[in-house]
Design goal:
Blueprint lengths: L5 H14 L1 E4 L5 H16 L4 E2 L18 E4 L9 H17 L6 E9 L5 E4 L9 E8 L12 E5 L2 E5 L6 E5 L4 E4 L6 E9 L12
Antiparallel strand pairs: 1-9, 2-3, 3-4, 4-11, 5-10, 6-9, 6-11, 7-8, 7-10
């Protein structure tokens, strides 16, 4: 059974094609939200999250002046409790391939925790050394976000800035190589499940030196 009818997916895909991003509210139901959030809390309690870096391959560095989040990479075969989440991703990928003709062949996801006072400076989700990210995927896991809590995602488009509030169960999907964005400084703990849909399997998609 489909999670959403084709008519809804077509609306989403049209907006993605026109604006380079689309916001999908209530992408998951409350039960799945709680399951993912509980899994996230377990990883925090086990100190499984590690400080995030910037860059890829030899350019990968830790710089808290650029980004301050902590991450835990997910593994579909290991993290079986998240199977329903992955089923929703599978359906979304099918629709992106069908309606946007995207050659998606793999994905990668991690949990991301921004402690109070942290942020991520303006950037694009495409490495110079690795060019296989097609679509960026941010599922917000903040149960009671309120104005003033911070952690908004700011999309920079020409002469305007679009603010995306990190509301729980909200999914933001955008073109990885097109959308310049940043995470505003957060005043409270900020949680998300973030990832990328890839045109090559994980570990491939590296640019060759010329």
């Amino acid at each position: 059974m489909a999670f959403y009818p084709d008519e809804i997916y077509i609306q989403w895909m049209d907006q993605l094609a026109e604006d380079d991003f689309v916001v999908l509210d209530h992408f998951i139901d409350e039960d799945l939200f709680q399951l993912i959030f509980n899994f996230f809390e377990d990883r925090l309690n086990e100190n499984d999250l590690k400080v995030a870096g910037i860059g890829a391959l030899g350019d990968h560095t830790i710089n808290k002046k650029v980004r301050g989040d902590f991450i835990f990479w997910l593994d579909r075969s290991r993290d079986e409790v998240l199977h329903e989440f992955y089923e929703r991703v599978d359906e979304l990928i099918i629709k992106l391939k069908t309606y946007c003709f995207l050659p998606i062949s793999d994905f990668e996801f991690h949990l991301a925790h921004y402690p109070p006072g942290t942020f991520y400076e303006k950037h694009i989700d495409q490495f110079k050394e690795r060019n296989n990210r097609l679509i960026s995927f941010v599922l917000y896991l903040n149960p009671n976000w309120q104005p003033g809590d911070g952690g908004e995602l700011l999309i920079h488009k020409k002469d305007k800035v679009i603010t995306i509030n990190p509301l729980g169960r909200r999914l933001l999907v955008f073109k990885s190589d097109k959308v310049e964005h940043e995470v505003a400084q957060t005043a409270k703990n900020r949680y998300s499940l973030t990832g990328w849909l890839l045109n090559n399997p994980v570990g491939l998609g590296f640019l060759q030196n010329s």
